[in-house]
Design a protein that fits this description.
The chain has 223 residues and is an alpha/beta fold. The chain is built from four helices and 16 strands. The chain has one domain: 4-Layer Sandwich (Purple Acid Phosphatase, chain A, domain 2). The mean pLDDT is 86.
Length: 223
Amino acid sequence: MPATPDAGLAMTLAGERVVLLGARALHWPARARLVIADLHLGKSHVFRQAGIAVPRGATLDDLRRLSDLVAATAARELLIVGDVLHGPAAQAAWRDAWIGWRQAHPDLDVAVLAGNHDRALDGVALGMRQLGQAWADGPFLFRHLPQADAQGRHVIAGHVHPKTRVPGVPRSWPAFWLRPAMTVLPAFSDFTGGHAVQGGQGAALVACVEGDALPLGWTPRPA
């Protein structure tokens, strides 16, 4: 299902209006920026190289979802908070798919933060600006690992691949994990595992279910 802005949950984080999109991205309207985590380009390729049977086309599916989000939100910027890659970049089958996607969005500024899988990342070759380990903008500190900021900024991170259960649905779903002074994004890639999380003790969850963002056990204040 193509992503639409009304498939998201508008809320206020650190005084800023953001939208948590059920397609597993955070939209910051004031910056016309989409923020995603854990794209893991090439993960299915790495698994097939290891003899593990996985479905083909996972990278193309992820990139189609990303195109839908860019179009639906009119984003001018895309920020990937780590784990752009999963495995070596050279001569990998996913590389042509990404280059084609990048050429289809020439005016989109793509910036990336380093994740634990990004040692082979060549941002220039892939049309990405590399921002290092962490990057601050406004009240937010963007980084891959969900670690608190010593200066008290609200951290937006990835790495954990949070998932949670939805009452009445017999499976787990990717989720935004909202903690005090920190938001952990769901993995954008469809082809990932996940870390089971639960709300409570100041934390809240927003499950991403078939393109919709569903708050679990709490009622967000309108942004």
